[in-house]
UniProtKB/TrEMBL annotation:
G-protein coupled receptors family 1 profile domain location: 43-295
Name of the protein described by the UniProt record: Olfactory receptor family 52 subfamily M member 1
Source species of the chain: Pan paniscus (Pygmy chimpanzee)
PROSITE patterns reported in the protein's UniProt record: G_PROTEIN_RECEP_F1_2
PANTHER family: OLFACTORY RECEPTOR 52M1 (PTHR26450:SF136), OLFACTORY RECEPTOR 56B1-RELATED (PTHR26450)
Keyword Membrane: yes
One GO CC term on file: plasma membrane
Keywords on record: G-protein coupled receptor, Membrane, Olfaction, Receptor, Sensory transduction, Transducer, Transmembrane, Transmembrane helix
Any single Pfam family the record assigns to this protein: 7tm_4
Transmembrane stretches, start-end: 25-50, 62-91, 103-122, 142-165, 205-228, 240-258, 278-297
GO function terms (MF aspect): G protein-coupled receptor activity; olfactory receptor activity
Amino acid sequence: MLTFHNVCSVPSSFWLTGIPGLESLHVWLSIPFGSMYLMAVVGNVTILAVVKIERSLHQPMYFFLCMLATIDLVLSTSTIPKLLGIFWFGAGDIGLDACLGQMFLIHCFATVESGIFLAMAFDRYVAICNPLRHSMVLTHTVVGRLGLVSLLRGVLYIGPLPLMIRLRLPLYKTHVISHSYCEHMAVVALTCGDSRVNNVYGLSIGFLVLILDSVAIAASYVMIFRAVMGLATPEARLKTLGTCASHICAILIFYVPIAVSSLIHRFGQCVPPPVHTLLANFYLLIPPILNPIVYAVRTKQIRERLLQIPRIEMKIR
């Protein structure tokens, strides 16, 4: 590591502290975090397998669900194995490029997930407001293109973040990151140069993704509710709204932890650092854990397929 004026340096690697302030509890914290990661992997892999096997689920909504499951696997796997390494072995060292790569994966796929939720809202809008054209509008090709657009948007939005850090801010006050993963603001806070451009760009992307996507999703549901209220009977209204319940739950599971974590990060100066870090980890873990549960409980075909697994095992025995 090259040092300049004994203040700023060009690090070849960083040191992740894990959960700052709770170092003595790292071994115990590994139990819930390890369990939650295992649940997330098993749940999302199960969703992918069930949708692949069950031909009746080869529909736009379930293809989007598979995209969500893949994204959730990437988000949880890009952070939790490293966190468990810190908890178990004190393996906090992470190379500069690996750190920037982790930052890109986390923020990119969080952006992609928001885009998939927006695509799913469009799917529900067409299915309810224009059901006769749903199969013509949401073809397999269109679904694939919507997924690709969400991915490209994530890459275009987030790609400049690590590049700006690498090229504009090569000097750092310290190589110790008081976090469990390479979060953008945590890394930028360590730099010696003028980070205003990075901060403004990061906030702008956060606004574009979270606010605009949320507004678009809300607008689609306003039109959906207007169409539902025009149905003749309360039973028909409840049945139609029931098809949106899983999507609404998944949206709340994704956006609420991010909003709470962002608000505390910006305005919660009196909140202890361990709470900041725990919330930042929970918003990467809660959606991967709960999304498969929500869709398994709310989707009849997935639920029935999962219930068949024990019966098949009993027949084999």
